[in-house]
Design brief:
Elements: H1 2-25, H2 47-51, H3 55-62, E1 70-71, E2 85-89, E3 92-99, E4 102-108, E5 114-123, E6 128-134, E7 140-142, E8 145-148, E9 153-156, H4 178-181, E10 194-195, E11 200-201, H5 212-216, H6 220-230, H7 249-256, E12 263-265, E13 280-282, H8 303-307, H9 310-313, H10 318-321, H11 348-351
Antiparallel strand pairs: 1-5, 2-3, 3-4, 4-5, 5-6, 6-7, 6-8, 8-9, 10-11, 12-13
Length: about 350
């Protein structure tokens, strides 16, 4: 009976994946933007190059979480309290302080003893901020103690768990490694460059944060076109960008999903493709990551829940609710929903809260 149940569950899981792939993830799009494969020879030119022509969009982007995804530490970017403060949790005491313009954390290291670690980068900014520490072999690690920007206090990840030095979950171990777990969604054109024989990284990026070209693709071909054929009056759909203005629902979703979803990469290096599933397998809405009805729970990053919704089926796009450049809602609170839904949908009789 036990083996019969295992087979049944396997069949059901396969069926669920097949349904999602057929009806949701592979939803066809009759208004594709310019093919990504046609701009693979383009080079990354940096966000400042975009600013001269797109000042409004650039200004909105500078206020976004994307622009602050990863930054060098200074008095403006560091949100945590580094005024000789301490925090103790789960058997570990950490101290946060400054020496000149540099920020340091004294905390338990991989040998079980406390050491002073210089903050190399800030990581995120709201509602929490983490800090990256440089280690040998090109590795960067995120400290276990993080800053709660909303409550303005330090807190422990995995609260209540005493994680010993040397454990994979220890902040110096694989679970908290920036290169493999975090980097590709916080920087632009990130190349992990892992060398297994040396267990080392030479990770690179074109922009430290999530900049214009993270979504629109490398822009050198776009610049060449704008300064050449465009000025001569030759209009070209897509302007040689991977995600041009007024892109379709699927084009937007395929650009956002790689970072706004729980997913697994299926290739060591990304394939230049217009099909999401050539590079990623999104997690299906089961298990601890989702509520029982498939809705968003904790850090499931929206996509799979959205992809099974009526909004998705009705053609709602990311920028119907979010400003593409600031990332903020286009209207305050539930007003964003009432762009389409009637007023009674926002009443307690409907929401039950």
């Amino acid at each position: 009976m036990k083996y019969r149940n295992v087979i049944l569950y396997s069949i059901l899981a396969t069926a669920v994946v097949a349904i999602i792939v057929d009806n949701i993830l592979l939803k066809k799009d009759s208004t594709k933007p310019i093919l990504i494969s046609s701009i693979t020879d383009a080079q990354y030119v940096g966000d400042l190059t975009c600013k001269s022509c797109h000042q409004k969009e650039y200004g909105l982007w500078k206020t976004s979480d994307h622009a602050k995804a990863m930054e060098l530490p200074n008095d403006s970017t560091v949100k945590g309290d580094f005024n000789n403060t301490t925090y103790t949790a789960d058997g570990v005491t950490s101290k946060f302080y400054k020496t000149g313009s540099k920020f340091f954390i004294n905390t338990q290291g991989e040998d079980g003893k406390n050491h002073d670690y210089e903050v190399a980068y800030t990581f995120g900014h709201y509602p929490l901020q983490q800090y990256l520490i440089k280690f040998p072999n090109g590795k960067y690690q995120t400290t276990r103690t993080s800053w709660d920007t909303k409550a303005k206090k330090w807190f422990h990840q995995y609260k209540g768990d005493k994680i010993p030095a040397g454990d994979w979950l220890h902040w110096t171990g694989g679970a908290q490694n920036w290169n493999t777990n975090c980097a590709d969604c916080h920087s632009t054109n990130l190349q992990k460059n892992y060398f297994v024989e040396k267990d080392s990284f030479n990770t690179t990026y074109s922009a430290i944060n999530v900049s214009c070209e993270a979504c629109h693709g490398p822009a050198s071909s776009h610049l060449e076109y704008i300064n050449g054929d465009y000025k001569k009056g030759k209009k070209e759909a897509g302007s040689r960008l991977a995600l041009p203005k007024n892109s379709s629902q699927i084009a937007q979703i395929n650009a956002c999903t790689p970072c706004h979803a729980r997913r697994t990469m299926v290739n060591k290096d990304l394939i230049h493709s217009d099909e999401l599933l050539d590079n990623y397998i999104p997690e299906i809405p089961i298990g601890e990551s989702f509520h029982d009805d498939g809705q968003v729970k904790e850090e499931d990053f929206i996509y799979t829940s959205f992809a099974q919704s009526k909004m998705y089926e009705m053609g709602v796009s990311c920028n119907n609710c979010h400003n593409s450049h600031s990332g903020k809602l286009v209207l305050n609170a539930n007003n964003v929903c009432q762009q389409c839904h009637q007023k009674e949908y926002n009443e307690p009789e409907h929401t039950f809260h």
